[in-house]
Design goal:
The protein is mainly α and about 190 residues long. The protein is built from six helices and three strands; from the N terminus they run ααααααβββ. Strand 1 and strand 2 form a beta hairpin.
């Protein structure tokens, strides 16, 4: 199969693939995405810590539960929205990934807790802090993963820079051709 065919098939499965011609563009885009993810992680951490404190020390106080609801709702629908879009897109394609699992679990905790809070059910247990901390931990992991991906891309770029740009065909040793023009079955001279 051709690379285009493989890329199209992976896109159908929900993977967001982009083809870049050079590594510097790829690294710049990765750094931009990582910086956005770091900002979202910090925002999630700042909002998540009060939710955990309130859920731990004041679990049944109504004001505490309303505050947890507001903070967790903001966490879900703003800094984490990309995670939910990715997760629900994967589910729509009948493909389960980590984003889908986190989306389902945090949304289940949020919906249940919201029901308990607003329906004034007999249960007084809400799980907003569970959803909040899951989002913080997942975004911490994604941020670390982004940093590793940038470093890996830089290392691959360094290796790629060592590759020859032209090759000499064995059939015509006087002609040098760009390596991109080599075809399967070409025999080249190596010195």
């Amino acid at each position: 199969h051709s690379p285009k065919h493989i890329i199209n098939e992976l896109r159908k499965l929900g993977f967001g693939l982009k083809v870049k011609k050079n590594f510097s563009d790829l690294i710049k885009e990765e750094i931009k995405n990582t910086n956005k993810r770091i900002k979202n992680f910090i925002l999630l951490l700042v909002l998540g810590i009060p939710v955990v404190i309130l859920g731990t020390f004041f679990p049944h106080a109504r004001l505490s539960m309303y505050t947890q609801f507001v903070l967790t709702t903001f966490m879900i629908f703003f800094p984490s929205k990309d995670l939910y879009l990715s997760g629900f897109h994967a589910l729509k394609k009948k493909s389960v990934n980590m984003d889908a699992l986190v989306s389902l679990s945090t949304m289940a905790a949020w919906i249940y807790s919201s029901y308990v809070l607003f329906a004034k059910s007999l249960s007084n247990h809400v799980y907003f802090e569970t959803a909040a901390m899951l989002l913080v931990v997942i975004y911490l992991g994604k941020t670390i993963e982004d940093k590793v991906r940038i470093k890996s891309t830089e290392l691959i770029q360094n290796l790629y820079s060592l590759c020859p740009k032209v090759a000499r065909l064995a059939s015509d040793s006087s002609t040098m051709i760009p390596v991109e023009q080599l075809k399967i079955g070409d025999v080249i001279l190596v010195k």
